[in-house]
User: What shape does this take?
Amino acid sequence: MSQVQENALHAQRSPLLALAPDVAERIAAGEVIERPVSVIKELVENALDAGAKEIRVEIRGGGLRLMRVTDDGYGIPEGELERASLRHTTSKIRLVEDLSHLYTLGFRGEALASIAAVSETMLLSRAIETDGLGEDHAALSITVRGGEITQRGRRARLHGTTVTVRDLFYNVPARLKFMRGARTENGHVLQLLQRYAIGYPAVRFNLIVDEHTALQTSGSGDLTVTLAELYGLPLNEMLYPVHTGDGLHYTLHGFIGNRVLAQGNRQYELLFVNGRWVQSRPLYDAFENGYRGLLAKGKHPLLVLFLNVPADEIDVNVHPAKTEVRLEYEDTVIAALTQAVRTVLEQSPALPEAIQFPGPVLANQRRLPGPRRRGLRVSESAEGYKAETAVPGTTEVIESLHPLAQLQQAVILAEAPDGSLYLVDQHRAHERVIYEHLRRVYAGGKGQEESVEAHLLLEPAIVEMKRYQADLLEQRLPMLRGLGLECERFGGRSFLVRSVPSSENGGGQEQLVAHLQELAETAAEDSNDWEDHLLISLSCRSAMRRGRPLGSGEQLALLKALAGASAPAVCPHGSPILLHYSRAFLIGKFDW
Ligand code: ADP
Ligand code: MG
Assistant: This one.
C-alpha cells in the first residue's frame, strides 16, 4: 500500500490555513475546471485525502445541472469551513518543502475555490471530532455562488463532507458552449470513478447517474474483487500478480492480465504512483516496450500496477492536473515496468474461441444514460479458463508434452500430463527457437559458446540496393558477418552474398536464398529496430514451413527446443504459437 493510500486509511488532519504568498506562487497551477469530470476528480480526491471509507457520487444532466460527492471522511470543523473555498487555502501543506513528504493527493488549495467561482457550490461538513457532542449537533453549510457566500445554514449529518455543485459554468458561457452531450460527460465520470475504485479497493464507491446506479464497489480491499465488480468477470485466473521492488527506490505490485485479456486500446492499462493515477508518457512507453512483439499489433494488456516510491524522490508539482510525475530514479523504474510486463506475456499461451464480453456489466446498465461501453474482450470464458495454465508452469508444461500427431502438416497435437490438449504451430515454434538462438549469438558477440554457422553458397548471389540503402548496408557488413551472412560490396549499389546462416533443419538455407533481396533491405533499414527486424526476418525465412511432414521424433525435438525458449508462447511477430484446450474446456464442451 502506498503512503497516500495508507494516509487515506488513517488520515490525520491539520488546520486549514492560507499558504504564504511565496509558497502559493511556487506551487500554483492556476487550476482550470474544464468540464464536469474535473470537478468530480477534485472532490473525490478531497474525500480520499480525508480518509473516507465510502464515497458516493451523484450527477445529473451530465454534471452541469448537479454534481454531489458525499464522504465519511474527517470533515471540516465549523470555524474553517469558509476558508475551504478560498484560493490557496489548504490543510495539506505549509511550505514548499512539504512536497517532499507529501502523502495526500491535493496540496495546492485551489480546487474548491476554482469550482466555487464557476458554479453554485454548497459545502456541508461535520468534523469527526465533534461527533461525540450529541445527536443534535448539526453540521454547518455554506453556499458559494460565483465565489461569493450567499447562504449559511445547519443540517444534521454524521461526520463527513458533502459538496454539491449546481449550475456549473452558469457564468462562463464560453465553456458551456464547448460542453459535449450529457452522455459524453457521464462517460468521462464513469471512467474516472472506475479508476479510483481500482486505485482504492478498500473504499466503497457508488456512482449514481440521473438516479440510476452506474457503478458500485464493495470496498472489500481486494483488487481482484473490485475488478470483478467493475468488469463483471471473475478475472482472477487470468490475472498474474506482480510483486517486486529494489528495497530502496521503488516497490511495484498489482496485476497483469494474460494475453487472453489483451484489449484493443490502452484504456485498461492503469498505473498508480504513490496512490495517484498518472499518465506520464515514459512510464506507459515502458509497458509498451514490455509487450511489443509479444502481443499482436494493436493489442494492449489489461494491467493495474501500483508503483510506490519515497515521497522525496517524486515531483508531483509538474502538471496542473497532477497526472504527470517526475521520478528521480526513472530509469530503474522504467526497467522494472518493462520487465514485469514482459515476464507475464512471454509465458502466456493463447486460448481457443474469441468471446465478446459485455463488461463493465452492471445490474441496471441498460437504463444508464452514458456512452456505449465497449466491452472487455476475452478469448475464453472465465469458467473455461479456471485451473488453466499458470504463468510459471508454461515451460514445464511444454517440456512434458507428448506429441500425438500432426494436423495438416502444420500443427503438432500434443497431450499434457493433466490430459489437456495443446496445438503447436510448427512454423512459429521453429521461428521462435531460431530467433532466440540468433538473438543470443548476436547479443553475445564473439567468444560465445553458441555461434551461427555460415553456410557457403556454391554460387554467390547478387542483391541490388537503392543508393541510400547501399551505404547503410556497407556499414553493417561486419555485424551481418556475425550472423553468418557474409556479404561484400561489389561496385556501386550491388552486393555479393557469399554465405547465409546454416540451420540444423537442412532446408533452412535454401529457403533463405530465395529471400536475400528482402533480407538485405531489412538489414539496410533506416531505423533503430533494424537489427531486431533482421533477426525476425531471418528466423521467419529459415524456419520450417507449414506443409512439411514431421515424424514423431521431429515433433518431440521441436517441442523440446521450444521448451527451452524464454518466450515459448508467441512468435517473434507476436502471434500465438500455442493453443490450449484445457481439461475444464473439454469437460465443459462435452458436458462430461
Ligand atoms: P487541497 O485539496 O489542495 O488542499 P482544495 O481546494 O481541494 O485544496 O480543498 C481545500 C481544503 O478543504 C483542503 O485542504 C481540506 O482541508 C478541505 N477539504 C476539502 N474537501 C474536503 C473533504 N471532503 N473532507 C475534509 N476536508 C476537505
Ligand atoms: Mg483538493
